[in-house]
Amino acid sequence: MTVAAPPRTAERIMWAVAAAFYVLGVLFITLVPVPWTIRSAQVEHGVLDPQSWLLASTWTTGSPREAIANVAMFVPVGFLVARVAAWLGVVVVMLTWTIEIVQIPLLDRISDPRDLVANLIGGLVGVALALATRRRTRKRVV
User: Fold this and answer.
1) CA dist 24 to 17, 20, 43, 61, 121, Å?
2) If you write DSSP's letter for every residue of 83-128 in order, what string do you get?
C-alpha cells in the first residue's frame, strides 16, 4: 500500500518555516556582540581585506573545535534552505558572506576567513544532503 505524499506546497511551507527559525537563530548567534573580550590578529576590514586571506596566522591559529562548530552550525542552514527549493542553495553562500561582512563594523566580533570557509563548507554539505534526500524520496514515491 502506497501512502500519498503531502502536497508539495505544504511541504515547502514546512521547510521554509523551519529554515526561517533556524537561520534567525544562526543570525542571533553570529551577529549579537559577545559578552567576553575577543583577542585576535584580525586585519581592519576582515574578510574584505585580501591580506587577511594571505596571512599565515589566519590559517594556523584558532581552535579546530571552533571550525567544527562553524561547519556543524551551517549544515542545517544548507539542508533546510535547499529543502525549500534547490536553487536557494545560493542563499547559503550569500548568507555566510553577509554574516562575515556585517561582523566587520560590529564591536566584539571577528570577521575571519577561517569562519567564512567553515560556514561555506557546512552550508554546502547541508545543500548536498538535502539534494540527496530529495532524490531518494522521489525514487521511493515514484
Assistant:
1) 11, 6, 28, 29, 19
2) HH-GGGHHHHHHHHHHHHHHTTTSTT----HHHHHHHHHHHHHHHH
* Angstrom distance (rounded) from CA 20 to CA 95: 12
Distance CA 108, CA 122 (A): 24
Per-residue pLDDT of 115-129, as tens digits, reads 999 999 999 999 999
The 10s digit of each residue's pLDDT in 64-106 is 898 999 999 999 999 999 988 878 888 888 999 888 888 887 6
Please give the pLDDT value at position 39.
Answer: 57
- Which is nearest to 116 in space by CA: 57, 66, 80? 66
